[in-house]
Amino acid sequence: MRRMSHMKFLIVDAFTETAFGGNPAGVVILPENADFSSDETMVKTAAELRYSETAFIKKLADNEFKIRYFTPAAEVDLCGHATIGSFCALMHLGIVSDNCRCINHTLAGDLCIDIKDGFVMMDMASPVEIAAIEDEAAIKELYEVMGAVYDPAKIKLLPKLISTGLPDIMMPLASQRDLNAMEPDMKALSALSARYEVTGVHAFTLDAEDDITAHARNFAPLYDIDEEAATGTSNGALTYYFYLNKIVQAKDHCKIIQGEKMNRPSVILTEINAEGTDCLIKVGGSAVILAEGEINI
After folding, report:
1. Which residues form the active site (predicted)?
2. What is the model's pTM?
3. What is the mean pLDDT of residues 189-200?
């Protein structure tokens, strides 16, 4: 009979201070000195937990961890909301303390995590502008696949492929109304994402209230995520997109609202610190522990 491994798991709502808000993630904490399960087992575990991402955490030393992230379909290099959820879970369990700095080793690189007053701010991977979508036929195809209105008289910005750990297409829309009305063709979007070699599309509008930078929606059906309520890496990329388009300055903060269409409103805060060719982007939020228990695999 195969010996079962008992691991702590938690369900965490990230980027919110209210249960059932924000973006839920699974968090699985490996026992001390245990190694990661097989990739197949972790994919199956993520599928069983049924959240868009599940983080598997291995403690390497005090305040130093390796985290791997799995969707129900595959491993991904990095997941922002699952990282916020992971460090809030570690703080909840007393594995890390409030007001400390941690190192998170990920497939997207070694990232610094600052915890301050229960609020988790994480470094994104170095931002990269991969490409702009400039061809008119390609732009029209994108908006058609997304079930969105493309009006070049109202939309002055170009869609761009940006990555701060995961590549996404940043897609501007003219209004909150257009953003909320959008209904993507998920099968076509999966094919488009595969062709562009991106995780998905992060649509946004600058039509926002005074204290809010943008409203956003995120779609990644290629990874079995039709829509996501809060996406840290994508909003990190969006912050860099804003910087490239001179919407924010070199040392600005952004407040982005996501998940409203899903009735899971999320607040994602970002910071940019750009000097010369160096650019550091942080994404932050708080989280609520919804449930915890043991998982046997």
Report:
1. 53
2. 0.84
3. 98
